[in-house]
Design a protein that fits this description.
Elements: E1 3-5, H1 47-54, H2 58-61, E2 64-70, H3 86-94, H4 102-112, E3 117-119, H5 127-143, E4 152-156, H6 160-174, E5 183-185, H7 192-201, E6 204-207, H8 209-216, H9 224-228, E7 230-235, H10 243-262, E8 268-272, H11 279-287, E9 292-294, E10 304-309, E11 313-317, E12 323-325, H12 328-341, E13 346-350, H13 353-370, E14 378-381, H14 387-399, E15 404-407, E16 422-426, H15 432-439, E17 449-454, H16 459-466, H17 469-472, H18 486-499, E18 502-503, H19 504-510, H20 514-523, E19 527-530, E20 533-536, E21 556-560, E22 566-570, H21 575-578, E23 584-587, E24 590-598, E25 603-608, E26 613-634, E27 637-657, E28 663-668, E29 674-684, H22 687-692, H23 697-714, E30 726-731, E31 741-746, H24 754-760, H25 762-775, H26 800-817
Parallel strand pairs: 3-8, 3-9, 4-6, 4-7, 5-6, 7-8, 10-17, 13-15, 13-16, 14-15, 16-17, 21-25
Antiparallel strand pairs: 1-30, 2-10, 11-12, 18-20, 19-20, 21-22, 23-24, 24-25, 26-27, 27-28, 27-29, 29-31, 30-31
Domain Helicase C-terminal: 331-487
GO molecular function: helicase activity
Domain Helicase ATP-binding: 108-294
Length: 818
């Protein structure tokens, strides 16, 4: 029997579990609560004092495992290059900025020289102004051209919210420049009547990679005057373009560069990120161009107090009698409540959409006990909301009408939310880059700020709150992306051929993998070679061949059965596990039961209900080795990397009582299996190694399963992924290896680079895994070490001590091999 641990967001067919852990419904522990009398208006304590208030009382204080103090820093000024238009400099001064920081001036200088440049400085360091000043100067220059459109600029953001926020900022800054700068957002929410005006007259167009891929590039003849004049392409928050999404965006940018060259333009790329390791290397891989790096942050910074917070153990028992900690969701809701009562503006980041809804509901209920007027000042923000709902929440947050927001990472990126006092992070967000992005949302006006990371009952979270050096003494992760992934490259070659026939000269732009792929695309009758070029052969749009976010097709619409009202959407990849028939679905604090799921039409019908249970999907997974690329001996064992095929099927769901997590029953489901061809790392052990580790057949499955769970939980420390990007399978006797084997695979077709990174860091990765299991205080295994919230086998069997002994023997072989 194979034991599996699945990723989320698998493209196309296989999409594993994406469920909230059972412990999210554990009742609150009896704990001391700080004074929740409403604060005096305008009171603003220093970060350390604010943390002391949150931690007041012996039970609360013991939850802080570490406090890091980042001291304030003075800024260093410079002067703008003299080639910047005086009107632009005057507009900047009108906005209250007399002199730039040194890094802003350097970025502007490179941009004016025609160098593509990446600015990688901290949050709230003025990166936007660094690229905006040369861009606006070029647009003002262009407005004096005979046709009034002598230069254009394109801005790419990973989210609609960030593009809308940047649009507001640019319009405010450029208002003194009049009609010389015509700024507009062009995305899926843009009304159709406005789109033609933007194509014809817009000079600074803000969009996202999805719209560039599906809307702008396929319709390039209608954008010809814009592309012909394109001088700058701004890529904001470029660190988010990693894994499969980053690989897709890299190919979209190559298609953009190709079309610009066709119209006689060669735009300069200006990239920005607050959290990037080796930023010039990552930017070059993303754009395909040489990129200059500006990483010396000259901006001032207020004090940041960063606390690591571990929730207490409760009196409850989880699966297999394991001890259960109070959930990060419940703990974060308490902190959000306390911050709101004290009049502090804050955001609580949480991993899941359901978690964001739960935190806001719990906080509102508790605020009602203190002051009912505060209830409306807390809300949830997540993907899947309708555009008008998102915009209303963003406006309320900007205006200060909202004091507290429970948000998914949709609000992690660069929104200019000034004046926040605190950020609460409910669970490690998967990478150090995301952690610092989220923490950087507070203190954006230069004042001091508080950040609190609340640990989940999870191997990595537990490890980090007791090993703060892994967070504070390490650089952010290197960006992992692979534009040559054939599952990524093939549809973009088709899309490029549909835009303009592909020539031999174009192949240099798209990379060396083209030579192997083009014959396959011809054999599949997607492309046809005529004379010296390849042409798209079909009537349908080539851009629709792929979803660049790897989410598996069009989102499933969640519709209220009685009224026909569209409540929101769920990613197609998560539909099997989150909106299957009988699932409990949360939306804006209301609970619904899924009546039916129509996969063909992409519709889930729901009806409002108040069930006393939550639902968790169960599934089965099988894995086969297609090709072994690299094999390294670890003593008698083997460490391997190569291609695999994973077959997964959601077969049932459990109903769990909200108060205790008790299983009320299991219901079978009839959903189709999904297959995934991807990349994996795997390791094997021999009979002699099992004897050395004292592993008998009765505990072998549990030892392998426990090691698999913990290793998946620890991998985000070594690769730019989170545990929902990857999956795993452990098998006591695998038919391809004929040995006990543990697999960890990328949850995306063709791979995302995570398994490859795991292979290259395997010794450090598995050593940290062994330490995390061995140092956990539980007896037989718990969510802090070997239990997984998304295990398709209900965390059975697991053997904690066996996993430690097994990894010890495996790593001893690795040491002998070096």
């Amino acid at each position: 029997m194979a034991f599996n641990h699945l990723p989320a967001g698998v493209h196309d067919a296989l999409v594993p579990l994406s469920v909230t852990p059972v412990t999210d419904s554990v009742p609150m522990a009896k704990n001391h609560r700080p004074d929740r009398s409403p604060a005096e208006p305008g009171s603003r304590p220093k970060p350390g004092m604010l943390l002391d208030r949150l931690a007041s009382g012996p039970s609360r204080a013991a939850r802080i495992t570490h406090t890091e103090h980042l001291p304030p820093r003075a800024g260093r000024h410079a002067v703008w290059p003299d080639r910047i238009r005086p009107e632009v400099l005057a507009a900047v001064r009108t906005a209250g900025i007399e002199h730039p920081w040194a890094h802003q001036a350097r970025v502007a200088e490179h941009a004016l020289d025609g160098d593509s440049v990446v600015v990688a400085t901290g949050t709230a360091s003025g990166k936007s102004l660094a690229y905006l000043v040369p861009v606006l100067s070029a647009l003002v220059d262009g407005s004096e051209a005979p046709n009034g459109r002598g230069a254009t600029a394109l801005y790419l953001a990973p989210t609609k919210a960030l593009a809308a926020d940047q649009c507001r900022s640019v319009k405010e800054l450029s208002q003194p420049l009049g009609t010389s700068v015509r700024t507009a957002v062009y995305d899926g929410d843009t009304p159709f009547e406005e789109r033609e005006w933007i194509r014809q007259y817009g000079t600074y167009v803000l969009t996202n990679p999805d719209m560039l891929h599906r809307g702008i590039l396929p319709s390039h003849p209608r954008w010809s005057s814009f592309l012909k004049a394109l001088k700058y392409v701004v890529i904001d928050e470029c660190h988010t373009y990693r894994g499969v999404f980053g690989s897709h965006v890299a190919q979209v940018l190559r298609r953009l560069r190709r079309l610009c060259a066709r119209y006689g333009a060669s735009p300069v790329f200006l990239l920005a990120s607050a959290t990037a390791a080796e930023p010039s290397v990552a930017a070059r891989r993303l754009t395909g161009l040489p990129v200059v790096e500006v990483a010396d942050d000259a901006s001032p910074r207020g004090e940041l107090v960063f606390a690591l917070w571990e929730p207490p153990l409760t009196e409850l028992e989880g699966e297999k009698g394991a001890p259960v900690r109070r959930t990060a969701t419940a703990e974060a809701a308490d902190l959000l409540t306390d911050l709101t009562v004290q009049g502090m503006r804050s955001i609580t980041f949480v991993r899941s959409r359901r978690g964001a809804e739960l935190i806001s509901v719990i906080a509102q209920e508790r605020l009602a006990e203190v002051d009912r007027s505060l209830v409306r000042r807390v809300a949830a923000y997540r993907g899947g909301y309708l555009p008008e709902e998102r915009r209303a929440l963003e406006r309320a947050l900007h205006s200060g009408d909202l004091l507290g927001l429970a948000a998914t990472n949709a609000l992690e990126l660069g929104l200019d939310i000034s004046g926040l006092d605190a950020v609460v992070i409910a669970g490690y967000p998967g990478t150090r880059a995301s952690l610092w992005q989220q923490a950087g949302r507070a203190g954006r006006s230069g004042q001091g700020a508080l950040a609190v990371l609340v640990a989940r009952d999870d191997p990595l979270d537990t490890f980090l709150v007791h090993h703060p050096e892994a967070l504070f003494d390490q650089p952010v992760e290197s960006t992992v992306l692979d534009p040559d992934n054939p599952y990524v490259l093939a549809p973009h070659l088709c899309a490029a051929a549909a835009e303009l026939p592909l020539t031999e000269e174009d192949l240099k732009l798209f990379g060396p993998a083209c030579e192997e792929l083009l014959p396959q695309l011809e054999a599949a009758k997607l492309l046809r070679r005529r004379t010296r070029a390849w042409h798209w052969t079909r009537r349908e749009r080539a851009a629709d061949l792929t979803d660049i976010r790897g989410e598996g097709g069009h989102p499933v619409q969640v519709v209220e059965a009685g009224t026909g009202r569209l409540l929101g959407t769920v990613d197609a990849g998560a539909a099997h596990t989150t909106v299957h028939e009988g699932a409990v679905h949360l939306h804006q604090g209301r609970t619904y039961l899924v009546r039916s799921l129509d996969l063909e039409d992409g519709v889930a019908l729901v009806e409002q209900a108040t069930p006393a249970y939550s639902t968790v999907a169960r599934d089965t997974t099988a894995i086969s080795v297609l090709e072994t690329d690299v094999e390294v001996p670890w003593g008698e064992g083997r460490l391997c990397y190569g291609s695999v095929e994973v077959t997964n099927q959601v077969v049932s769901f459990l109903r769990r009582r909200l108060i205790t997590g008790e299983v009320l029953g299991e219901t079978k489901l009839d959903l189709p299996p999904r297959t995934l061809r991807t990349r994996a790392v795997w390791w094997t052990v021999t009979e002699d190694q099992l004897d050395a580790a004292r592993i008998n057949p009765e505990i072998l499955g549990g030892a392998l399963h426990a090691a698999e769970h913990a290793s998946i939980g620890m991998l985000p420390l070594f690769a730019t992924c989170d545990r929902w990007d990857i999956g795993g399978v452990s098998v006591p006797l695998h038919p391809d290896t004929l040995l006990p084997t543990v697999f960890v695979y990328d949850g995306h077709p063709g791979g995302a680079g995570f398994a490859e990174r795991a292979f290259h860091t395997a010794r450090d990765w598995l050593t940290a895994t062994r330490e995390a299991i061995a140092s956990c205080e539980c007896d037989a295994g718990c969510p802090s070490c070997i239990q997984s919230p998304k295990c398709g086998n209900g965390n059975d069997p697991l053997h904690k001590r066996g996993a430690v002994r097994l990894l010890t023997v495996l790593l001893r072989g690795a040491a002998e091999a070096e």
